[in-house]
Amino acid sequence: MIITIDGPAAAGKGTLSQKLASEYGYAYFDTGMVYRAVGLKMLLSNTDLKDIKKAEKEAGELDFATMIELSKNPEFRSSKGGEAASVISSYPGVRERLLDMQKNFSMNPVFADGRPANGVIYDGRDTGTVVCPNAEVKFFITASPEVRAKRRYDEFIAKGMNAKFEDVLRDVKIRDDRDANRKDAPMKPADDAIILDTTNLNIEEVFNEAVKYIESKKK
Ligand code: C5P
Asked: Whose CA is nearest to atom 14 of ligand 1?
């Protein structure tokens, strides 16, 4: 089974995806990683993020092994890394070059140690609309910008990183704006996606809702 979970930054996609992957024994593909990998490549080579040609070249050359290696760099998950990913993800040529890598995973999903999996959970912005339009189950997770910024801020603090709530909130709003206004692939729910607003729900409640829906689809 293919399950897609899309939605804006810090809506709880990653947590829900990982809980579902462990519940069902499915592989997990965090598609933000492909954009973070290209963004980090640009940062590490001191390339101006406005250099579209270079971003396209990096995207064209990216493979899984390189992405996993880059993900070990502390900047990969930092807000600077997220911002770089957000900028380069707005280039249609970059998205196009990263599409096959994301699509192909669903044909042969594997766990991190290489074992094959019976299904996959995709986490991203466009996985139900562009990457896997044929997915059997699609969720679109959202929450107010303030609640999402608070969750992201708490994560940074828990990791011992420096952060100011106002800065995180501003970044969340800038990223929302960029996600919503991408010319070729604006972030929007697929027509057949179930929308989960997590503003007033905790992770257990979101998880239970999602499981209920998946079970109904399996019948
Ligand atoms: O989810 P994460 O914060 O790791 O994503 C980093 C950036 O990659 C996002 O801000 C978004 O701009 C971009 N992205 C995307 N499409 C996806 C996943 C992420 O454009 N499917």
From this structure: 32
Number of domains in the chain: 1
Domain span at residue 159 reads 2-218
Say whether pTM exceeds 0.85: yes
Distance 209 CA to ligand 1 centre (A): 24
Residue 46 is predicted with a pLDDT of 97
What CATH number is attached to the domain comprising 128? 3.40.50.300
In ligand 1, the atom with minimum distance to the C-alpha of 182 is 20
CA 104, 11, 178, 175 torsion: positive or negative?
A: negative
Residue located nearest, by CA, to atom 6 of ligand 1: 32
Average pLDDT over every residue of 98-110: 96
How far is 209 from 196, CA to CA, in rounded Å? 8
138 in helix, strand or coil?
Answer: strand
CA distances from 85 to 176, 200, 201 (A): 13, 29, 28
